């Protein structure tokens, strides 16, 4: 594997890559409906893309209130710390914007991943898109 780079993406210019990754992970693999996946927040969110060379392999988004979401890495690139790099880019951007808290809804199976990044569960389990989730919070230092 070559070096993976993370950059802030533009929703309009990078739309094909953002959609390709999220459709593959959330809609095709996890069975999330397109109506649940695509929302009006995409147009105003800060999006991140992970690249291996010039091929986009992962994405995440940050909302103006500090909510991080839509963290997704294509199947063939999982286990290579790309999700961690995407999350750290989102956290760093949130902090740069003065957002002292970041929060997310984590799929329960991924909660320990987010805990390693400083997020703490703040809710009981609930279903979102038919998948068990937890709300999690991180306070900036």
UniProtKB/TrEMBL annotation:
<protein>
    <submittedName>
        <fullName>GNAT family N-acetyltransferase</fullName>
        <ecNumber>2.3.1.-</ecNumber>
    </submittedName>
</protein>
<keyword id="KW-0012">Acyltransferase</keyword>
<feature type="domain" description="N-acetyltransferase">
    <location>
        <begin position="4"/>
        <end position="141"/>
    </location>
</feature>
<dbReference type="GO" id="GO:0016746">
    <property type="term" value="F:acyltransferase activity"/>
</dbReference>
<dbReference type="InterPro" id="IPR000182">
    <property type="entry name" value="GNAT_dom"/>
</dbReference>
<keyword id="KW-0808">Transferase</keyword>
<dbReference type="Pfam" id="PF13673">
    <property type="entry name" value="Acetyltransf_10"/>
</dbReference>
<dbReference type="InterPro" id="IPR050832">
    <property type="entry name" value="Bact_Acetyltransf"/>
</dbReference>
<dbReference type="InterPro" id="IPR016181">
    <property type="entry name" value="Acyl_CoA_acyltransferase"/>
</dbReference>
């Amino acid at each position: 594997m070559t070096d993976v780079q993370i950059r802030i993406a533009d929703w309009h210019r990078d739309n094909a890559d953002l959609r390709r990754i999220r459709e593959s992970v959330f809609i095709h693999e996890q069975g999330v409906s397109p109506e649940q996946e695509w929302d009006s927040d995409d147009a105003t969110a800060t999006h991140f893309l992970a690249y291996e060379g010039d091929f986009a392999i992962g994405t995440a988004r940050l909302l103006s209130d500090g909510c991080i979401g839509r963290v997704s890495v294509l199947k063939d690139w999982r286990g290579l710390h790309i999700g961690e790099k995407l999350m750290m880019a989102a956290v760093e951007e949130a902090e740069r914007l003065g957002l002292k808290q970041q929060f997310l809804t984590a799929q329960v199976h991924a909660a320990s991943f987010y805990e390693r990044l400083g997020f703490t569960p703040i809710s009981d389990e609930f279903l979102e898109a038919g998948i068990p989730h937890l709300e999690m919070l991180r306070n900036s230092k």
